[in-house]
Amino acid sequence: MNEPATAIEAAVAASPLHQLKDELDIVIPTIRNLDFLEMWRPFLQPYHLIIVQDGDPSKTIKVPNGFDYELYNRNDIKRILGPKASCISFKDSACRCFGYMVSKKKYIFTIDDDCFVAKDPSGKAINALEQHIKNLLSPSTPFFFNTLYDPFAEGADFVRGYPFSLREGVSTAVSHGLWLNIPDYDAPTQLVKPLERNTRFVDAVLTIPKGTLFPMCGMNLAFDRQLIGPAMYFGLMGEGQPIGRYDDMWAGWCIKVICDHLGLGVKTGLPYIYHSKASNPFVNLRKEYKGIYWQEDIIPFFQQVVLPKDCTTVQKCYIELAKQVKEKLGKIDPYFDKLADAMVTWIQAWDGLNPTSASFSNGKTG
Ligand SMILES: O=c1ccn([C@@H]2O[C@H](COP(=O)(O)OP(=O)(O)O[C@H]3O[C@@H](CO)[C@H](O)[C@H]3O)[C@@H](O)[C@H]2O)c(=O)[nH]1
Ligand SMILES: [Mn+2]
């Protein structure tokens, strides 16, 4: 889709230019050249990119001129993490979480390389990063639902009956964006509806209520790395694993129970990106099928998770969660034993690269 440059330049001109450019990294998992960045250039060029190259490390990934980036391939991951590299997936977009670990910034925006700049109903190019930053810098309202959606959005507010004691809201840890054109459907749905395209632009940002899980998609996602980064592990997927395309889902269930416990917020809705490529539904079915079956037990597990009061940091919550995964999901399949161990390895690797965050206390326990 070739957006006339003028529409994007107009959107950039109308927005606060490149907020947080020194406090935010953009993480891109990839197996291909990053030509897609050309379309994002007006919005993203000032930001630092962390490119996680998956697959064959001897392949050269071309990055358009003018972007400031660091690139890590499989050899780099092994060099940096040593044996702990075993917790980073290979041949699956789950590898992106290595970028979250090596970043030193407060915020992360992660985007897939087949996601382009979308247009809103007026035809204006959407600066997705700007909307994510708005979402992250304004409070969330997980304890009481505001029927007029995001009360902190321009032209909105809390509605009558909304308790004033709750109007301060809580810090926002995650901003989950959506997709026009190819929706993030599972393989069975893709097979049944191969031609379905998402053309509905819903102008809303919602806080996902406390106690409610959601299917987090990693293709258009931003988060406060300082508040929730250690829990953004995308699991063991891809080569050598019995499951794929549940990387972002697993992370989403883990971060949500931890955000609920620590009193942090998760938002979904705007911004939209334009998702251009439908991955092969048959290949996806092969990756997903165990997950489709297992999640009927995984979801009740997360719904019953209780984290002790003394879990006051993300790391402590995550280690406790790994313990419960081993105890309660290990009986479904030995994979969950392996995954629980990998969750601990992830935290060890995270704290090894981010010693100052090891005891960073986030939010207040819920
Ligand atoms: O082995 C791989 C395959 C792909 N990538 C990179 O990951 C993203 C997503 O890849 P793609 O767009 O081809 O796949 P989708 O099915 O559309 O992705 C959806 O499923 C989620 C993964 O579970 C993903 O977040 C969703 O968007 C691209 O950047 C590929 O280059 C990879 O790194 N390794
Ligand atoms: Mn895609």
TrEMBL record:
Give any Pfam family that matches. RGP
Reported EC number(s) for this entry are: 5.4.99.30
Query: What are the subcellular locations of this protein?
Result: Golgi apparatus
Residues listed as glycosylation sites in the UniProt record = 160
Is the Ribonucleoprotein keyword given for this protein? no
Report keywords, A-Z. Cell wall biogenesis/degradation, Glycoprotein, Golgi apparatus, Isomerase
**Site (Required for activity): which residue positions?**
160, 167
Q: Name one GO molecular function term.
A: UDP-arabinopyranose mutase activity
Q: Which InterPro entries does this entry report, sorted A to Z?
A: Nucleotide-diphossugar_trans, RGP, RGP_fam
GO annotations under biological process?
cell wall organization; plant-type cell wall organization or biogenesis; UDP-L-arabinose metabolic process
Tell me what reaction this enzyme catalyses.
UDP-beta-L-arabinofuranose = UDP-beta-L-arabinopyranose
**Domain of life of the organism in this record?**
Eukaryota
* One of the record's GO cellular component terms: Golgi apparatus
Does the record's keyword annotation contain DNA-binding?
A: no
The family annotation for this protein states:
Belongs to the RGP family.
| PANTHER family the UniProt entry points to | UDP-ARABINOPYRANOSE MUTASE, UDP-ARABINOSE MUTASE
Per its database record, what is this protein's job? Probable UDP-L-arabinose mutase involved in the biosynthesis of cell wall non-cellulosic polysaccharides.
User: What is this protein's record name?
Assistant: UDP-arabinopyranose mutase
